[in-house]
Design a protein that fits this description.
Length: about 375
């Protein structure tokens, strides 16, 4: 099972949000990649506070400092994930406190998947970080029906698994959580985190196929831009990129250093970060000669490494030199929300003559495209 205390993992990036009943942040980590090393885990989440009443069964949760509500919210009220509870009951005979829980995804990204389609094999896991612990009355409380027990932020943490891929606003299947609560307990609290894989919403937004500039080699001045359409920053370290000319796809190049794409932000990947050599483009990451864009037929791809597989995050292609390889001008996606798979198509346009950067290239590296259409 997944481990949020720094162990190696092969499924790429995870998220973890602090959830219910005195909710605190979580963890995320990078997995291994094509023989590479695991990356340092990072932390994300928000502290939230909730309580449960036993003999007048109820679960009340809300962000710290806010009036408690009937839902559990992660990352701000209604901003990221919503965990809701229904059918709260207590059986004094069996001493089982029971309630149904569903997860709703409010992120732009899909959760429970590394790429938007492929299910996370370990699902969406909601695990108990601390507790449950009596806050009024006395007695030991335990989770009666967990799907498993694992090591996330500590050892022996019970968890519930939701085997769902949830796009924005989708709600998971409902699971019944049961706790062993002695009748001597009047109220209790606990902390849970959510851990799952998250889809990076990276969009290939602009491509300089056929640059002109101070050097004799086209390749030195080539670049492409990524836009983050998601709600969370994405670090590109460990992702792989490649292009596919008529001769076939070149070997993947793994991004070897941290390159963060903020939500709604842009980064540029190119042959060189040296603006004297690359025509003045502000390149955030240099891939060297790993990519070489043909003027007649090619494709650009970014993918994640999951285990021994690569999962495509985004890909675009072109075949018309007169359309997508205009000399000295980039090809721009007119809106990042559109289908970008065909650079020759109407969703793309050539950078305007007024969009000049560096030594005279036409394009908008690291900025909204000149042809952007709301």
């Amino acid at each position: 099972m997944r481990d949020c205390v720094g162990k190696e993992r092969g499924a790429g990036r995870l998220i973890a949000y602090g959830l219910a009943m005195v909710l605190v942040g979580g963890c995320s980590e990078w997995g291994t990649d094509l023989g590479g090393s695991p990356y340092t885990p990072e932390t994300a989440g928000l502290r939230l506070s909730c309580t449960a009443s036993v003999h007048a069964p109820s679960v009340r949760c809300g962000a710290l400092g806010n009036t408690p509500g009937q839902a559990i919210v992660i990352g701000g009220q209604g901003q990221n994930i919503l965990l809701s509870s229904t059918n709260v009951s207590y059986d004094a005979g069996t001493e089982i406190f029971s309630f149904d829980v569903a997860v709703q995804n409010l992120l732009n990204e899909a959760i429970g998947t590394p790429d938007g389609t492929t299910p996370d094999p370990e699902g969406i896991q909601v695990f108990f970080h601390t507790g449950p612990t009596a806050t009024s009355g006395s007695g030991m409380i335990t989770v009666a029906n967990p799907d498993g027990v694992g090591a996330f932020t500590a050892i022996d943490q019970p968890y519930f698994t939701y085997n769902d891929v949830l796009a924005k606003n989708q709600v998971s299947s409902v699971k019944t959580w049961q706790l062993n609560v002695p009748s001597t307990v009047n109220s209790f609290s606990f902390t849970v985190f959510l851990e799952t894989d998250i889809q990076p919403l990276l969009v290939i937004n602009e491509v300089m196929v056929n640059p002109s500039g101070p050097t004799s080699s086209d390749t030195d001045l080539e670049w492409f831009e990524l836009y983050n359409a998601g709600s969370r920053a994405v670090d590109l370290q460990g992702f792989v990129i490649a292009d596919s000319a008529a001769s076939g796809r070149r070997p993947y190049h793994m991004i070897s250093s941290s390159v963060e794409v903020p939500p709604g932000g842009y980064v540029v990947l190119g042959n060189s970060t040296n603006t004297t050599v690359n025509g003045g483009a502000m390149v955030d990451y240099a891939y060297g000669t790993a990519l070489s864009l043909a003027n007649s037929l090619d494709a650009v791809k970014i993918a994640r490494v999951v285990g021994l597989d690569t999962l495509t995050i985004d890909r675009t292609q072109y075949s018309s030199a007169s359309v997508s390889a205009v000399n000295g001008a980039s090809r721009e996606l007119i809106n990042p929300a559109l289908d970008n798979s065909n650079m020759d198509g109407s969703n793309w346009a050539t950078a305007l003559v007024t969009a000049v950067y560096g030594s005279g290239g036409r394009g908008t590296p690291r900025a909204q495209n000149s042809t952007f259409t709301p």
